[in-house]
Specification:
The complex is a heterodimer of chains A (116) and B (258). Chain A is mainly beta. Helices cover 0% and strands 61% of the residues of chain A. About 14% of the residues of chain A have low confidence. Classes of the chains: A mainly beta (116), B mainly alpha (258).
């Protein structure tokens, strides 16, 4: 869920409070089996605007643990089987960043696209 | 296979008026839907809808496992279940370039019944709230200026990272992705032939693939510009091996059913 209508938020960056007009993006990401018989996080890719505050609720519906990594934003989570975890970050730089499962073995599952 | 007026009328009514299929207040007739599914769908999707029908090995892209309840082509937000109208569109129009060929020979009642049955195959439909449709803004004029602006939106949206500078599906990230980006110069698009269909895909993303939703990330008028530009990149329509296989399966299945 995106809340783009929100006006100003404040983000603490290196001790300095910086105003941002970023929106809150709250998404539920579920680990599923793709038609190619690969376990993936879905939605696999996410688009955001620079400055958006992104919160991801990661639901692992499988019995074994799965990883979720967006290295560019310091996200590296292992979600145990049948458990849910949450990660949050501010998309403070633009670009296209890989989203990986960093376990068994590491592989790119999608991308975070942050637009200016 | 000639389309029956009933099925097209259903599609027209559900697409045009936004009515939910089966919203008559009566409980869906699952036995009728199961019969339609068995006669028309199970050959590819399997009797239980798990995608392992006897014709499944003929397709490069396997038939969808309907028990997962996850669909690429929707009018709803990323990760959500589709609406009945979405399912009707896929059933009646098919998915171009795939083995899911149009089932426009079905009557309106048959389409309604099989939608109810398909929804019964996955707990996602019973568990979740009714899906919300992502609104598509009114189409601005498709002018040469809009097409030119669309080329700039393609760059701004980082589309080339996956789809490549010339939109041929060969961007720098393509090699790392388990589901390869589409060559956007090939036609027809699976999501449908119109610029509006392209906008819908840009808004909703394609679940199960790395194609994200750009809803509220790229402005509505820019999405239309991008859709017009993408529309202008297409070559002549092609027929894929999977599409040929789909029609072959339909013909063989009809012969066996007689």
């Amino acid at each position: 869920m995106r809340v783009r209508a929100m006006a100003l938020g404040a983000v603490l960056l290196g001790g300095v409070v910086t105003a941002t007009d970023g929106a809150d993006i709250n998404l539920t990401i579920v680990n599923v089996v793709s038609p190619q018989d690969v376990k993936i996080w879905e939605p696999t890719s996410i688009a955001a605007k620079k400055g958006d505050r992104v919160t991801l609720r990661l639901i692992n519906k499988h019995a074994d643990e799965h990883g979720y990594e967006i290295a560019a934003f310091g996200v590296k989570e292992v979600v145990a089987g049948d458990k849910t975890a949450s990660v949050s970050f501010t998309a403070d730089k633009a670009g296209v960043f890989p989203i990986k499962c960093h376990l068994h073995p590491a592989h790119v599952v999608g991308q975070l696209v942050v637009l200016e | 296979m000639a389309p029956r007026p009933g099925a097209l009328a259903l599609l027209a009514s559900t697409l045009g008026l936004g009515l939910a299929v089966g919203a008559s207040g009566q409980p869906p007739d699952l036995s009728a839907g199961e019969r339609v599914f068995r006669d028309n769908c199970a050959v590819c999707h399997g009797a239980t809808g798990d995608g392992h029908g006897m014709a499944a090995p003929h397709f490069k892209t396997p038939p969808r496992d309907l028990t997962e309840g996850r669909f690429k082509f929707r009018s709803t937000a990323s990760g959500q279940i589709p609406t009945d109208t979405d399912l009707a569109r896929t059933i009646v129009q098919g998915i171009p370039s795939t083995g899911m060929v149009p089932q426009n020979h079905l009557s309106e009642a048959e389409v309604r019944a099989v939608i109810a049955f398909v929804k019964s195959l996955s707990p996602r439909f019973a568990a979740g709230a009714a899906p919300k449709v992502v609104a598509i803004a009114s189409a601005p004029p498709a002018t040469p200026e809009a097409v030119a602006r669309g080329a700039r939106v393609y760059v701004k949206g980082e589309c080339a990272e996956c789809h490549g500078k010339e939109a041929r599906g060969d961007g720098p990230s393509a090699k790392d992705l388990s589901v390869k980006p589409s060559d956007l110069t090939r036609r027809p698009f699976k999501s449908g032939p119109t610029a509006r269909d392209i906008v819908r895909t840009l808004l909703t993303g394609l679940d199960g693939t790395p194609m994200p939703s750009y809803h509220q990330v790229i402005e509505d008028d820019e999405l239309w510009d991008l859709a017009y530009w993408l529309d202008a990149q297409g070559g002549p329509p092609e027929t894929t091996d999977d599409e040929r296989a789909g029609w072959h399966v339909v013909r063989m299945h009809q012969r066996r059913s007689r």
